[in-house]
Amino acid sequence: MSKEPLILDGKLVSDDIKAKLAVKVQELKEKGVTPCLATILVGEDPASATYVRMKGNACERLGIISKKVVLDESTTTEELMAAIQELNEDPNVHGILLQHPVPHHIDERAAFDTIRIEKDVDGVTTLGFSQNAFGFAEYPSCTPAAILAIMDYYNLPIEGKHAVIVGRSPILGKPVSMMLLNRNATVTICHSRTKDLANIVSQADIVVAAVGKPNFIQGNWIKPGAVVLDAGYNKGNIGDCDYEACAEAASAITPVPAGVGPVTIATLLKHTVESAERTVQV
Amino acid sequence: MSKEPLILDGKLVSDDIKAKLAVKVQELKEKGVTPCLATILVGEDPASATYVRMKGNACERLGIISKKVVLDESTTTEELMAAIQELNEDPNVHGILLQHPVPHHIDERAAFDTIRIEKDVDGVTTLGFSQNAFGFAEYPSCTPAAILAIMDYYNLPIEGKHAVIVGRSPILGKPVSMMLLNRNATVTICHSRTKDLANIVSQADIVVAAVGKPNFIQGNWIKPGAVVLDAGYNKGNIGDCDYEACAEAASAITPVPAGVGPVTIATLLKHTVESAERTVQV
Known about the structure:
Number of helices of chain A: 10
CATH architecture of the largest domain in chain A: 3-Layer(aba) Sandwich
Structural class of chain A: alpha/beta
Oligomer: homodimer
Strand order of the largest sheet of chain A: 1-9-8-7-5-6
Order of helices and strands of chain A: EHEHEHEHHHEHEHEEHEH
Largest interface: A-B, 29 and 29 residues
Distance between the termini of chain A: 54 Å
Strand content of chain A: 5-15%
Number of strands of chain A: 9
Shape of chain A: globular
CATH topology of the largest domain in chain A: Rossmann fold
Helix content of chain A: 40-55%
Largest sheet of chain A: 6 strands, parallel
C-alpha cells in the first residue's frame, strides 16, 4: 500500500475531550464544587512517578485538584488499603487512582478493590470490570475507554468488524475485549500462549496491541486496510507495534507517543469530573 | 473422517461429580449441616418449571434439601428482590438459584445481583462474573464450569488451542470465554453480528455453541478433529449444533441431551455443597 494511513492523533482527541471538560469544571466551580482526583504512588519506580506527575499536571491545567499521596516502597497492603479507605471517606475527593504497578509484596487486587466503585474513575475494581463487561459501568477502564474514544472520534466502524486483541490483562486486554464485543465486533483475544499469532492478527480489521513488548507486532502481520491501536508504552517512548512497518499496511494507526496515552489521561479526567457532577446531583 | 468421534458423556461426568458429592454430603450431615439449595421460579414458563424440577430432584437424590420458592408471573422486581433477601438471610440456605429467564417486566440483572455472593452457587452475579474472569471466583457460572469439567474429565487440552465461542450472554458466552482464556486458550467470541461465521468457526480447535438456536452450527463449519461442546438446549431436546453432521468432523462432541446439561446440574450441586462446607469451616 503506497497510500498513507490516517494518523489517529491522540492529542487532537484529548484536546477535544478536555475542551468540553473545561466548561463542566467551570460549571461545577460555580456550584461550589471543585473536582478532585487523588493519586496514590507507592515506591520509587521512575516511570510510575512520571505517569502520576503527568496526570497531576493534566488535572491542574484543567482546574481539577490533584491530591497526591506518596507512600514508601515498604508500605504494606494493609497500610495502602487504609490510605485508600481514607480517600473513600473524604467527600472532597471524587476519584482515586492507584498507580499500577505497586511493589511486588503488595496485593494489588485487594488494594484496587478497596477503592469505592463511585470513586473508581480509573476503572480498575473487580466489580467495575464486570459492570463494564455487561455494558453498564460508569467508569470503564481508562485505556480501553480511550481506545474506543479514538475510534469514535474518527468514526471508525466497530460493528461487525473482527478485532484482535493482543494481551489479556485485567485493566487492558480483558476490558477492551468486552467493550469491543459490546459494540458488536467479533473479538479474538491472544496472548503469550497463542499459537500462530501472526496468522490470527493478519485476519483482524482492528488490532489492539496491549502486550507491553516494544515493537512486538510486525508490519507483515497487518491486513492491508486494518486499523491499528497501540496501547503499548515501553521504555524510550516505544509502542507495542513496529510503527513504520505497521503504518505501511494500516488504513489508520495510533502513533506512540501521542496516540492512546493522552486520551487515557483525558478519559481519567473526564471520569473524575463526572464523579464530581454526581455528587452535585445527589 | 470415517473415524467415530469420542462422545463426551455428560451422564458419566455428572455421575462422577455426584459420587464425590455424596460422600461430602454425608460428612456434612454428620456435622449437623444439611446442604440446602433454594430455587426461585417466577411465572409459568413450562421449560423453566421443568428445569427447576430437575434441579430439585437432583438435590433430593443426593440428600441436599431443595427449598422451592414459586412466585406468581405478576411478581415485581422489588418483591422478587425481597424474596431473595430473605433467602440471603436464612442461615439454613447455602445456595440460591433464580431460574432464568424471569418475566420481561422484571429487572433480571437487579434480581441476580441481590443474591449474596456467598450463596451465588449458579454464578450469575455481576461481581461473580468478574471474579471468574480474573480467575478467583468461588462459584463460576455453572454451564461454563460444566463445559470445562467435561474437557478436564476427558483430558482434552485447552492451553494453546483456539476456542471459538458462538454466543455472548452474561451467564454463558462471556464467562466461558474468560475461563478458556484463563486456561490459556486463544479465544474468539462470535455472535449475531459476526460476519463470515462459518469461516471463523472452521478455524477452531474447540467450538462452544451457546447461541440458543436449534441445529445452528453446521457440520461443514467444523475443522476435522475439533472438539465440539454444545451448550444449547432448544425445544424438543435439540442442541445448537447439527449433531450428526458435526460428529462427522469432530474428534469429540457432546450430545444433546445428556451432554453439557447434566454436568451443569451436577456443578450446581457441587457449588451448593461447597457453600455448605464453608459455613462449617467458619
